[in-house]
Design a protein that fits this description.
Strand order of the largest sheet: 1-6-7-5
Order of helices and strands: HEHEEEEEEEHHHHHEE
Number of strands: 10
DNA sequence: TTCCATGTTCCGCA
DNA sequence: TTGCGGAACATGGA
């Protein structure tokens, strides 16, 4: 379930479990997950080395390999990480790092929209992809966000979904952000006030931080979040009106027509 | 059985 | 030329 908060949890998971152990070998049960690298090349880049640090930008995770390139992980719609000691190999494993002492880190992905690769330098990757600022990075300033939004046309939902404007929001948390700022997902950028854009900026950071905190401590999201009411006909937590469902920017969208304008 | 899915990329059109 | 909207991708789970 990977948007920015989930990828941040994966980053912490790698930090907690998988650093500083020697990699004995890399297995690739399904090479279709690889992008621009072969299974033997991936093994050569990692074998005998250790993972030493992590870096995340939006939904992109980079894991530094000592004296080598960075391991790049993208989780697509169904990517997941699982650290385990012997026992069962996770069902949808696509790439498995075998550490010493029978420890393993599996990258799983049932639906194959994710990707595993090697990159020389995360900064270069981010620049080449022209990714927008990461909303939890200190460079995500209100003026930067406002200018990035104002440079675009179309509906606010579509624009917030673009990784070139802000890196890391996806369908769920765009809906959540718009819900909490009472902005209709179809509102054109040109019709947003500066105050609303400032509110969006604050709300994006707050929503993502709340999701990370709750996820980290294994708690449900607040009942005041739209995300806990994503079903047509559910009652809006703010006003009790029925939650509506529509396809906007090509994705299923939930919103409250009573107060999102 | 049928429908739906938290992402990204590519294609056609304006 | 640039940018937007929608389809395609591959597959499991409800």
């Amino acid at each position: 379930m990977p948007e920015l908060p989930e990828v941040e949890i994966y980053r912490r998971y790698v930090e907690k479990h998988a650093l500083r152990q020697r990699i004995e070998r890399v297995r690739v049960p399904d090479r279709r997950i690889l992008r621009g690298v072969t299974a033997p090349a991936l093994d050569r880049a990692l074998r005998g080395r250790r993972l030493v640090s992590t870096r995340r930008h939006g939904k992109h995770l980079f894991v530094q390999v000592e004296r080598s390139e960075w391991l790049y992980l993208h989780f697509g719609m169904t990517g997941d990480l699982h650290y385990y000691s012997d026992g069962e190999t996770p069902r949808f494993s696509k790439v498995i790092l075998d550490f010493t002492r029978n420890r393993h880190l599996a990258f799983e992905d049932a639906r194959l929209f994710g990707a595993v690769s090697l990159v020389h330098e995360p900064e270069e990757f981010i620049a080449r992809k022209r990714l927008g600022a990461d909303p939890l990075d200190e460079t995500f300033k209100p003026a930067l966000f406002r200018d990035a939004l104002r440079a675009r046309r179309g509906a606010i939902k579509a624009v917030l979904m673009s990784q070139l404007v802000v890196a890391g929001l996806g369908n769920l948390y765009v809906d959540e952000t718009l819900y909490q700022t009472s902005i209709h997902p179809l509102r054109p950028i040109a019709k947003l006030t500066d105050a609303e854009i400032a509110s969006l900026h604050r709300t994006i950071k707050r929503v993502l931080n709340v999701v990370i905190e709750r996820n980290e401590s294994n708690r449900d999201l607040p009942r005041s979040f739209l995300t806990t009411h994503r079903a047509e006909g559910e009652s809006c937590p703010k006003c009790g009106a029925p939650i509506l469902r529509a396809v906007i920017a090509g994705r299923t969208t939930y919103y409250c027509d009573a107060h999102q304008r």
